[in-house]
Design a protein that fits this description.
By secondary structure, this protein is an alpha+beta fold. The protein has two domains: 178 residues, no CATH class; 249 residues, DNA integrity scanning protein, DisA, N-terminal domain (YojJ-like (1), CATH 3.40.1700.10. It contains twelve helices and 19 strands. The strands form three sheets. Strands 12-14-13-11-17-18-19-15-16 form a nine-stranded mixed β-sheet. Strands 4-6-5-3-7-8-9-10 form an eight-stranded mixed β-sheet, with helices on one face. Strands 1-2 form a two-stranded antiparallel sheet. Strand 9 and strand 10 form a beta hairpin. The longest helix is centred in the middle third of the chain and has 20 residues. It is globular and about 70 Å long. It starts with 17 loop residues before the first helix and ends with a strand. This is Probable sensor domain-containing protein. It holds the Pfam family DACNV. It comes from Rubrobacter tropicus.
Length: 449
């Protein structure tokens, strides 16, 4: 038995509404840093309580409408046009387009503007007019790079000013940000601090730590060969492999979610590969032949590590006093690195395509592709309840039954209950993604942002 702990930042009400969300945001605003990491409070950018409630209430009402039978989704930013300098624009800046006459700020205007302000690329600009009334003054075009935090990618996005940003993601679904930093959400009448990003946890990278150590050793072998022919390589930040793999994994999950066909990814320790291929617990309809193509991701990531060290090692070694890593990778204009980066994401799209077939995609923690169309054995012990994690590390959980979920989730729970070292990512047809594993002897799940 275990006791569930409801975190202090969670509301205990049965249902919450925009007024509750506004108060929730105001309580937490100063705790969160802006995009630059500055956590000095930024109180000046937060409007007074009545204004904040009006912003959220109007966005909430707009979320309940439909535009030509499509759900109303959009991003709104509360800032004056002057916050966005003329001449800026994507991919590294924000492009402001100001109306010649401001428009009324109400749910119907937001509904009408939502198709023009594409959720992935633009925000609806709102501020006070000269009379102190809320008005829609135009559109801010950001481009899609801001999605890299969820979808994966190395290109940096233009930072938003530390002002309220409201994302309307569906009926009654609102997320509030301070610039690009998530602060609070309202979904299904429940308040939360922010969406859970499992990739920010400690337990997930720890699970892959032995694999990263193997990659470092492969890189060091290549470095020794380069040194034998007196080719200088820059020192490498060994955390690079984690960040590159994380971006690939983000893209994989995001691509399956966007396809809306659902899927399951099973990740097992390398030493369990033969067990899976033998059909124990998981039966693979399409298994791949052993060889380098099955291990292509490993090849690509080692090549990235080697090429980054090589490309920054030209010239005098004294010119490279620190290890090169993610920052250099992001800003590198090296053609070979760009091609390798593209290959990494093509791998993610390949795996996402395999997930479209009935059954699970099975990989090792080295991201070695064992096969797809995997069927989890129905003879495994059923799992009646799971722990739903309320924080990144799963220290605080609530217990939920499994009777109301689909076959895909129930089979994932059975496998996690049978194999304590397996990780599963279950993605439903509506785009929800859930990480599942055994933690402390109980099947535990995390709902991913």
């Amino acid at each position: 038995m275990f006791t569930t702990e409801q975190p202090s930042d969670k509301t205990e009400r049965e249902h919450a509404y925009p007024g509750d969300l506004a108060a929730f945001v105001r309580e937490r605003w100063a705790r969160y840093p802006d995009d630059t990491g500055d956590s000095d409070g930024g109180e000046g950018a937060l409007p007074e309580a009545s204004v904040m409630e009006a912003l959220l209430s109007t966005c909430y009402q707009a979320s309940l409408l439909r535009e030509e039978e499509r759900p109303v989704i959009f991003r709104m930013i509360f800032a004056s046009p002057e916050e966005f300098p003329e001449g800026d624009g994507p991919p590294e800046g924000l492009h402001r387009l100001e109306f010649d006459k401001p428009r009324p700020f109400d749910e119907h205007e937001l509904r009408r503007l939502s198709p023009a302000a594409d959720f992935d690329r633009s925000l609806i600009g709102v501020s006070h007019d000269d009379d102190g009334d809320l008005k829609v003054w135009g559109v801010v075009h950001s481009g899609p790079r801001w999605l890299r935090g969820v979808q994966g990618g190395r290109e940096p996005s233009a930072p938003l000013p530390p002002v309220p940003v409201v994302e309307v993601e569906g009926p009654g679904r609102l997320q509030v940000r301070k610039g690009s930093v998530s602060i609070a959400e309202l979904e299904a009448g429940r308040l939360g601090d922010s969406y859970t990003d499992v990739f920010a946890s400690w337990w997930l990278p720890e699970m892959f730590a032995p694999v990263r150590a193997e990659l470092v050793e492969l890189h060091e072998e290549a470095r020794r060969e380069a040194a034998s022919v007196e080719e200088p390589w820059a020192p490498l930040d060994h955390d690079l492999s984690r960040k590159v793999a994380q971006q690939m994994f983000r893209r994989l999950v995001s691509t399956v979610r966007d396809a809306r066909h659902g899927g399951t990814i099973i990740i097992v320790p390398p030493e369990r590969a033969d067990e899976v291929l033998a059909g124990r617990r998981v039966s693979l309809k399409h298994a791949f032949v052993d060889g380098e193509p099955r291990r292509r991701f490993r090849t690509l990531i080692v090549r990235i590590m080697n090429r980054l060290a090589q490309s920054h090692g030209r010239g005098e070694e004294a010119a490279y006093p620190r290890a090169v890593g993610w920052e250099e990778y992001v800003w590198s204009e090296d053609r070979e690195l760009a091609e390798l980066d593209e290959a990494i994401f093509e791998f993610a799209h390949l795996v996402a395509g395999l997930a479209a077939v009935d059954g699970a995609v099975v990989m090792t923690r080295r991201f070695e592709l064992l096969g797809f169309g995997g069927e989890i054995s129905g003879e495994l012990e059923p799992v009646q309840t799971v722990r739903n994690a309320l924080d990144l590390e799963g220290e605080s959980t609530i217990e939920e039954g499994t009777q109301g979920v689909g076959t895909r989730h129930r089979s994932a729970y059975r496998l996690a209950g049978s194999l304590p070292d397996v990780l599963l990512v279950v993605i439903s047809q509506d785009g929800d993604a859930r990480f599942v594993r055994d933690k402390d002897g109980a099947v535990t799940c995390w709902d991913q942002a």
